[in-house]
Each structure stands twice: as structure tokens, then as C-alpha cells.
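sanity check this chain:
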Amino acid sequence: MTKSEDPATVRAGWHETVGSDLPLDLDSVFQETDGYFARRANERRAKLLRELSSLLVTALEPSEAIRFASRGYLYSTMEFLLSGHVAAMQTNQVALILTDRRLLWLQVDSKGRPKDLKNQVRLERIRRVSGSWTGQWTLETVSREKLGFNSIPRADRKALVALIPGSPNAQREAAKSVEHLCPVCIRVVLGPVGSIEKCPNPACRIPFRSPKKAAWLSALVPGVGDLYLRHFAFGALEFVGSIAVLCVALFAVATALVRRDSESFVMAAILGGFLVALPRILDFALTLHMGRKGIVPLTTTPAQASIEDGAPIGPSRVRPLPAFPAWSWALFVLGAVAVVATSWYSYTDARLRNRIVEACRLAEIGRIAEATNIYGEVEARGRVDTSDRGRFALALWEGGDFDGGDRLVEGLGTIDNPVADRLNAFLARQEEAVRDLGEGRKDLFEGSNEAAWVKVDRAISVFSTLETAPLPKSRHDVVIELAGELLGPPIVPEDLAVAERLTELAGTLPGADGRIEIARLRIRASGAGTVDAKAAVARIDPARLDVLWRLLALEARAAFAEGDAEAAAIAREAEAVSLDQFRLLADSYRAYSRARRGALMIFGGRTGQVPAADLEAATKLAGGQG
């Protein structure tokens, strides 16, 4: 302020900014006129009053004058905790208007323009007010209602404390001191918010929104109740968030319904509780609290008198505005589409995931063909990720199809850590078991049985978990399989002697089956002794043998064959051994085993039926057998 300007002139200028028709106690409203910060604060106060001037002209009683004005935030612990600091501040911005009769707090936007909620307390019903260094200004009524306002400037807090002496010695009163005002006519509406459906003022009669209806709408879908209360930005964001978390919960529920296992149901229950039930319970309480802070109009247009009000029956009257803005219906439709689409996608995806689980289960029990077909169907629909490939590869390994698992693992890429850990653990366990088996077989070959059993038992403990895999499951399996390998063509005398020893050892171990008969028959066929081959063969069930032992049985029979007819029968049986059975053999055995099959076919005169890829090796093998 310059020397030529006196305080009265400066205050008059600010009054002119506000509007001369608004009654102000200028000395009280604009207390300080000197100093940069004081002038800036008064300019902001004048702009606030200008934005509210038309509303205040309607609200003020005859001869009532404004003594002070400020801005702040009505503090609510529930709102700040449940809706967040920013959202709570946006919905709780208020203008504090102190008159010579009452204190009004009017909801405003960021520019100070009035919004819906309007409340007041009479000065004689204020018990005490106080300000703190934290920036909060607190008001307590004679009814012991406490209101806290934040972010009020320090100078304004001090002014309000000085202007409101209060009645600290007043007796406690039962009647509520805070009064709610009609958003349009700014008249007191008695009773709690929601107890009256429309304004009792005959000149107004606008319908009010129900806090309970808002709360139940939020319980149905969080955010809808806030939109109903005209908190458009906060309600829209909350609605979008609630739809997002609902979609996550629906995915879990769809998975549980398809898989029908306890783990899926527990996960669906947890997500349903935390993402669906709990938010709705909390939002019901929060929305009910927000709806009871003040009266929200259903429309700002005064309603015509109804028949209940004594109006005569006449032409139809104008209906109130809808409870939601027009754009919100598009939001609701998009939300419904998102829920339906997510439900459909979640259910179909869960079904496909369940098919992957089924394929893994079938692979683990050895039904490789069925499992592979199911996996191929799901993969063809593009719904198999790298982790699914890893799971199915592991199932194939556990089911005995090591080549199939290897093909899936090759170039697998990034997968989930649990799946990678399971794959790596399986490979490490298998490698260790194979190493133990190899060392144990070497000890058996050399006759060190006691040292062999320690290593063989470790390998068997791993292989026994792979029920359908072509791996030894007992000591007998290890011993007789080694003997069978040594008895394959061409026969070497040193190997024959070891095979005979191992066959005798296998006969002392539990679990003997037709393989020991084949081994004994093959040993006799390679020695000088005689044997009733037909009787020995009659004790063997080919259906219970794998491809290598079927070939060994045919080779043993071939050594005792009498005449072309019997040789031809052996050749036909060899030809009946499907080439698909060789797929389960290790790479190092496949070509050799196919050559043995071809040699038996050549032995019986069916050279023309030997596959071209096997003919050369089969001819050499047959020639080597004489």
C-alpha cells in the first residue's frame, strides 16, 4: 500500500471485486491491508467471495453480514484412508464463510466455484475452536461434534480463532448442532441426510439423493455410488478399477470351476474375498459416510407441486434429471462388456489350460499318443506358452518319452522359475541316476556285485518313480537287461560267459519273468548243449516283452529252427514288430536293433520286405551269423 492509499480505499476496492451487493464487514474480512503477503491473501479471499457471491446473496438472512472467508479441506480419517489422500482432498474442498450469526462451509472445486454440499453451524452452538501448527483448524460444537479442517493458511486460522470466541462452558446438548442446507434454496433441512426425500421449502421442493441408495450401488459395483453422488472423476476411476479387479477375480473363479481342484478353489476364494467382497464392504461404508456429509440434489431445477402436496391433477409434469450423467452409461456398457469378455475368455482359457493339465497327466502315466494329440490341439489354437511347453516336456520325460521331451525343451526360451527349477531338478536327478546305473553295470560285468548294488539301488530309487519309462525298476531288471545286451548278435565268447553268469545271478533275485527264459534259451543256442526249444518258447509271452527281448527271443528260436517253414514263420514274426516301437529306444540302439529285425527277415527269406534304410546293415549282420 502506498502512502496515498488509505485502508478504507483498499478495502473498498476489494469489495468492488467481490460485488457491492454482498454485505461484508470490510474491517473484519480484510483485516490487514499493508504488506505483500496480506494483500495477496486478501485478493484470493475477494476472488473466492466473488465466485460464491450469487450463492451467498441467496443464503444470507436479512441484515446478516460476512465477517471472514477462507478455504481448506474438511478432514475425514475414513476417506483419507480408504479413498486416498488426493481423492479425499478433491471431494472435501470447502469455503469457510463466517458471518455474524453462523459459520458455513460450502463444497467448492479447485477454482472456488460452489458444488453440492452446504452445511452450517450457529455461532452460539460452537463450544470452542483451535488451530495447530500442523495446519489443522478444529471446531467443536456444544453437541460434542468435532470437525477438522486442513490446509487453512496460518493467518486465517488465527483470525478464525479470534473471531469465534465459542462457549467453552456450555452444557452438552443432545440435539445435533451441524445443520445441512438445501443445495438450491440454501435453507435448513432438518434431520439427518437421507431422512427427507425432497426439500421442504414450498418454493423449492427439489428431490434429494439417498445416501443408502448410493451405498448399495457401491456395494454392487464400487464407483457407481460415487457417480450417483456426483463425484464424477473419483467415481469413474473407482468404477474402472473395480471392473479391473473383478476381471482378475473372474479369471480365478473360471479356473477353479474348470480344474475343480482344492488349490484353485482356495485361490479363487482368496481373490474373491480380497478383490470382490472386501472392497464392496469398505466402499459401502465409505459411500454411506460420504453421502451423509451433506445433501446432494437429484436435480437443481425446482420441482412442480405433486398431488401429495395438494396440487390438482393436471398435465404431466417435467420429470427429474436422471441419477447419472449421460456419459456414465457408456462407461457402464463398457464395464459390462469387459466383464462378459473376461468371463468368456477366462473360461475358455481355463478349459484350454485344463487340457494342458490333462495332457501332462496322460503323459506321466505313459499314454504318450493321447497326451501328444491333446497338446497338439491346444498348441494349434495358439494358447500354449513356453512354461506350458516346459511342463509338458517334463511330463513326457516322466512318462518315458525322452525324445519327445527333448524336442520340446530345445530352444524353449524363458519360462517361469518354478517350471525351470522342476526341469533342471529332473535332469540333474536323471543324470546322476544314469551315471550310477552305468557304474553299477560296469561293476556287475566285472563281478563286483556288492559294490554294484550300492550304485544300482540309487539309480533304481529314481527310475522307480517313472513307472512307464523303459528303465530298470529292480536289481533283477538291471542284471537281466545287461545279460540280454551281451547276448545280442554277434555273440562274443567272453560276453557269453559273462551273460551266463549274470543270468544265473538274475535267477536268484526276486522279480524273474520271461526274459530269463529267453536268456537261457539264447545261451543254450550258442553252446554245445541241447534244449527243448519249443517247450522253452511256449513259456514265453511275447506281448509282455519290449522290442529288444522280442528280437532276442526270435534269434534264440532261429538257432533251433528246423526247415524253411519254421524259418519263414520266424521272419514273419520279426516283420510284425512295428518300426514305431523302435522310437522309444535310445539313439545308439535304434539302427542296430532295426538291423537285427532285418537280419531275421532275411533269415526267413523275406529280404524284399526289409526297409531299404536297414538292408545293408541287416545283410552284414545276417552274414555274420552264418
Remarks:
- The two ends are 127 Å apart (CA to CA).
- Strands lie at 66-75, 93-99, 102-108, 114-122, 126-131, 137-141, 146-150, 179-181, 188-189.
- The mean pLDDT is 86.
- The longest strand covers residues 66-75.
